[in-house]
Design goal:
By secondary structure, the chain is mainly β. The protein contains no helices and four strands.
Length: 57
């Protein structure tokens, strides 16, 4: 799972390893990011999902 800024630059990697099937949670500290719109991308095998993330301070 990675986080990208509006220009497509990677700003954070939250998970970079294979996990067994199941439910997981990840804490993301966005204190070093400016307020704005970001995107996170989750890849699981051939499945890829991109969602919007808004950081407000």
């Amino acid at each position: 799972m990675k986080v990208y800024d509006i220009l497509g630059r990677e700003v954070a990697t939250l998970v970079n390893e294979k996990e067994n099937a199941g439910s997981y949670s990840v804490n993301f500290n966005a204190s070093r990011l400016a307020s704005g719109v970001y995107f996170y991308r989750l890849t699981a095998g051939s499945y890829v999902s991109v969602k919007k993330l808004v950081v407000l301070k």
